[in-house]
Amino acid sequence: MKKNLFLLLLLAVGIISSCKKNNYQPVDYGYNYYGLEKGRFIEYEIRYMDHDSLLNKHDTSVFYLKTVIGSEYTDNEGRKGFEYLRYRKDSLSGKYVFLNKWVTLIADRKAQLVEENQRKVKLVFPIGKEQEWDANMYNNLGEQTAHYEGINVPYANSFFSTDSSVTAEFYKYKTLIDDRLEQEVYAKGIGMVYKVSKNLYYQFGWTSPYKGTELYYSAIATGIE
């Protein structure tokens, strides 16, 4: 009897263990939202607006930017990174001209982009509502607290759509006389597909800004080259 009971216990343990193994799901940290894949390119329509009512100026300029994940490199800490190549053209039918080279990597569960020699933390992993980080922790630009505003939500514009995106919000401040916002939207398996950076100032009661700037990036094409 005791022997049979022991065998039944062993069988039960084996079944439970097998179920646990079969139900195991690896943790998805969300690294593929950053799109760090050699040859990955994204083309953007860039819209820049400059407002100055004192000069009666509300100018809008449009141009196009292409970013490409280039060759791998090893930094001075032995970490693998990639070239981040940037190209520009002034019209949709024009030809891209090389602009500059930045570098990017994922290290210590942080997506880092070195822009004009300033290292910024774009995303932290695993992606979750509870995450909060200082985007300027590796530079001297002053603390900039960031967090995730939207996770795993669809995104679409006139040129591009995706089923799953995440929004990193770096700054948001809005009053009757101020409207300041900095956000970036990243699509799973692609990278950044939208960016907005606004610094606008209003006279009390006005609906149009009297001073400030607006910058918008909107993805229009992506792929591997």
CATH architecture: Beta Barrel
Percent in strands: over 45%
State the domain count: 1
For the sheet with most strands, the description reads: 12 strands, antiparallel
Residue stretches low in confidence (pLDDT < 50, at least 5 long) are 5-13
Gross morphology is globular
N-to-C order of helices and strands: HEEEEEEEEEEEE
- In helices, the fraction of residues equals under 10%
Q: What would your notes on this structure say?
A:
- There is one protein chain.
- This protein has one domain: Beta Barrel (YmcC-like fold), CATH 2.40.360.
- It is 9% helix and 57% strand.
- A twelve-stranded antiparallel β-sheet has the order 6-5-4-3-2-1-12-11-10-9-8-7, with no helix packed on it.
- The chain has one helix at 2-22; strands at 40-52, 57-74, 80-89, 97-107, 110-115, 118-124, 132-134, 145-156, 161-174, 178-187, 191-201, 211-224.
- With 225 residues, it is mainly beta.
- 19% of the residues are buried.
